[in-house]
TrEMBL record:
It comes from Candidatus Kinetoplastidibacterium crithidiae TCC036E. It is an enzyme of class 3 (hydrolase). Mg(2+) binds at residues 84-85, 205. It comes from the Bacteria. It holds the Pfam family Inositol_P. Belongs to the inositol monophosphatase superfamily. This is Inositol-1-monophosphatase. Its cofactor is Mg(2+). One of its GO terms (molecular function) is metal ion binding. Its EC number is 3.1.3.25. The keyword Transferase does not apply.
Length: 258
């Protein structure tokens, strides 16, 4: 395994221990309701802090970018980290949240880790070397029937939580809203989902899971099928056959609406 990836895995597991301890306090109602949001925000901050300590201790010349940090995509090596992806799920003790860590070399994601501390599931990928779940190589689903696909959606708009372009396209499909983009993309990578669609996403939502999906045989693009997902905040990750059908459906819907 790539030594850089090993360090990222170590960081993810240390952060996972923090999150698991905090989740026990929530489950036992040890946190008052008026302090709940602050407690969860602090858990996320501590998770990012321990990740930064592990990574920068080994790679002090790399940039570390957490969710509240500004960053320059032109820097050579930078770690893109979300210490707790799925805050609302965590608050409600709904066990679908994750830690995501990715290393970018200039504008290319080269290493990714998504860790689910609840199930102790570790998803990893190195560019050109495939995607793994707990040391077992995984591939995207082999299903090719659009109507039988299981799809996850994520829309981060506050004012309007609908997918204007997708309403008619996805209304007859089986939809799951996991509310942890990294985890949903990991599920695409290992074949549990056939596709993920998201809009108004940040680089922290997309970076780690994007590499997992592509290295497992999936296709990743924006809603037009272009490689502008970082800048547009739109992301479609899917098995190749389902990907083509969704892009075609989106384009047909767009033409009909115009």
């Amino acid at each position: 395994m790539n030594p850089i990836l090993n360090i990222a895995i170590k960081a993810a597991r240390k952060a996972g221990a923090i999150i698991n301890r905090s989740s026990l306090d929530l489950e036992r109602n040890n946190v008052s309701s008026n302090l709940l949001n602050d407690y969860v925000a602090e858990t996320s901050r501590l998770s990012e802090h321990v990740i930064s300590e592990v990574l920068l201790n080994v790679y002090p010349d790399h940039d570390f970018i957490g969710k509240n940090d500004s960053f320059d995509l032109n820097k050579e090596f930078k770690w893109i980290v979300c210490g707790l992806d799925g805050l609302e799920n965590f608050i409600h003790c709904f066990p679908f949240y994750s830690i995501s860590i990715s290393l970018m070399h200039y504008n290319n994601i080269v290493q990714s880790v998504v860790y689910d501390p609840v199930r102790n599931e570790l998803f990893t990928a190195s560019r050109g070397a495939g995607t793994f779940l707990n040391d077992r190589r995984v591939r995207v689903s082999g299903k090719n029937r659009f109507g039988k696909s299981l799809i996850s959606i994520q829309d981060n708009r506050v004012a309007n939580n609908s997918f204007d372009l997708l309403d008619k396209t996805i209304q007859n499909l089986s939809i799951r809203k996991i509310n942890s983009c990294s985890l949903a993309l990991a599920y695409v990578a290992c074949g549990r989902l056939e596709a993920f669609l998201g809009s108004n996403l940040s680089i922290f939502d997309m970076a780690a899971g994007g590499l997992l999906s592509s290295e497992s045989g999936g296709l990743v693009a924006d809603y037009h099928g272009d490689q502008n997902w970082f800048s547009s905040g739109q992301m479609l990750a899917a098995t190749p056959k389902i990907f083509a059908k969704i892009v075609n459906a989106l384009q047909t819907q767009n033409l009909n609406d115009n």
